[in-house]
Amino acid sequence: MERFDSSPETALKWHRAGKGAALATVVETWGSAPRRVGAQLVIAGDGRIEGSVSGGCVEGAVIVEALEAIEEGEARLLEFGVSDDDAFSVGLACGGTIRVLVEPVGTVLPEPMLAELVAARAQREPLAYEVNVETGHRALRRAAYAERLRMDRSGFEEDGQTFVAIHNPPLRLIVVGAVHIAQALVPMARIAGYDPAIVDPRDAFASDARFPGETILADWPDEAVSKLGLDARTALVLLTHDPKLDDPALQAALSANVFYIGALGSKRTHAKRVDRMTQAGFSDDQISRIHGPVGLDIGAASPSEIAVAILAQMTAVLRGKA
Fold first, then answer.
1. Are 103 and 129 in contact (CB under 8 A)?
2. What 3-state DSSP class applies to 55?
């Protein structure tokens, strides 16, 4: 499963330690390539590596090229064909072709630019890194590539020269209500790449025994979401059935830019929720962002099935399919 890629952070650390470093980024793929566009491998001058650009198929060749690029202080744009046999060895049905951009830190990718990128990532600020592979022009873009940021999709622009690497913060799920459905939803969401947090001021529900190893906030929901922060990479799911707990968090989310809001309850319950939000001064457009009853209509009955329906709907909204 995809996890938050720490390659930029590692590259900066290795460069500042005097070891030398290069970032290798998948910029284009054809066929059944092992890694998605934007995947990164960081290579140190002493040969250490972290990350992956091909699941093992071409890493050896990329490392050799990267070490040479570090010595020469020049970028390299590499192209590899992944054979069917090699693809099969990493669990793919067929091979493909990938292009990899290798950028030594300092000589090609400026250290201040990389440090700015790392700082933005630490603050959960979405950024686009733009590089023209023909001219070598590089820049960080904040107020650009909105669709790419929303879809989390790196790639070349139509000119075929400008590559845009999307650096989004990790996906986050805030669940209000440490109920049975949450016990199924939280581990499912973690498998899907989310960083979950559970909010519930009721000690009997929000316990380490019920959610071992997870982030639990026993604060009032509006205080908890304020601490956690709400942004475009955050999904909020309300599961308590209690307006006193759900509504404060819901109002905070409606005023923020979260990508998904889901609320448990019947159509009748949701109609009452809509009335309360209208009385609270929210517009029809804001209220229409609430998915209630929560989850895709798959006939879910058990808590685990409902969790599947919720995660499926979150995914559909995130990927622009709902």
1. no
2. coil
